[in-house]
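Action item from last week, closing it out:
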Amino acid sequence: QVQLEESGGGSVQAGASLRLSCAASGRFLSSSVVGWFRQAPGKEREFVALTRWSRDSTLYADSVKGRFTISRDTAANTVLLQMNVLRTEDTAVYYCARGSQYSSDPRDYRFWGQGTQVTVAS
């Protein structure tokens, strides 16, 4: 069984940085994809970034491109999301998820963590 646990959320001022971590356990096939998603109150869950588990292949939402960086440490079974120049609109609960398709659609991800809150104040 795959388990995912996010950490690193918090409350910061606009312009600050945060680094989220997704600790994974269980079996990860080389074809696995790990994605970060977020959900703000009253809004649908939206794609943020993804990476293939076995090689450097990443994809970003336009809203975070150039500010966020996703990376992986397969030896530590961890996927990181470095978030720089945070904006108030980045406020949301951030989730990591594992899927088998290179997809930005949350419906393509079977396993999800519990989420970590990120709050950005102006």
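Closing note: The chain has a mean pLDDT of 95.
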